Amino acid sequence: MKVGICFMELLLFDANSLKDKRRVMKSILERTRNRYNVSISEVGEQDNKKRAEIGMAAVCGDSTGTDRVLQKVFNFIDQDGRVEVVDYTFSSI
User: Fold this and answer.
1) Which of 29, 34, 39, 81 is most deeply packed, by most CB within 10 A?
2) CB-based contacts of 34: which residues, under 8 Å, 6+ apart?
């Protein structure tokens, strides 16, 4: 069993208030959870309306599976027009 971990820093385009940011982040996190069955949460920059940090984890039988799932999640979030991925890190345990 392998655990894949991904950390992403995001820049939010249309968030003019923390309420806007919460709306966008809630949408992204719920859609990602439902589509890819990963554990995902906002882990930093909660008080900054233009930036967000999210962490996610996936568990599979081998590291190839976790890498594949996390790459799909990365692409899914990167293609969302409301945010831009500024930085990211992948690792496996």
Assistant:
1) 29
2) none
